[in-house]
Write a structure and sequence with these properties.
With 107 residues, the protein is mostly helical. It has one helix spanning 7-99.
């Protein structure tokens, strides 16, 4: 067995310590890569969820806007129809008034 002060023994111990340090560093790097990959995965999943939520909200907003536009168009059609009927009624009333003799003033 070599003596502790023996250069060969010191070299073996240093080599062993370096191997242990490299192994520990490799483990730390591997753990950091795994943690980084997990963080990236979580971030991608969160982004996908937010994107899906935003798309769903946008579809709801567009759908609601379409329903409101359809209701307004229906109201506009009914209003236009009513105005046409009022115009026709007024035209009929004017025709009737034009055909009648003027009324005498009541004393």
């Amino acid at each position: 067995m070599p003596h502790p002060a023996d250069p060969a023994a010191v070299g073996d111990r240093v080599r062993h310590l370096l191997e242990l340090a490299h192994a520990e560093a490799d483990g730390i790097v591997a753990a950091a890569r795994e943690r980084a990959a997990a963080i990236v995965r979580d971030a991608e999943e969160a982004a996908d969820r937010r994107s899906a939520d935003a798309r769903a909200q946008a579809y709801r907003i567009v759908d609601d806007a379409r329903r409101r536009a359809d209701r307004l168009a229906a109201i506009e059609r009914r209003t236009a129809d009513r105005l046409r009927r009022i115009d026709a009624f007024l035209a009929d009333a004017e025709s009737l008034l034009d055909e009648q003799t003027p009324l005498r003033a009541v004393a």
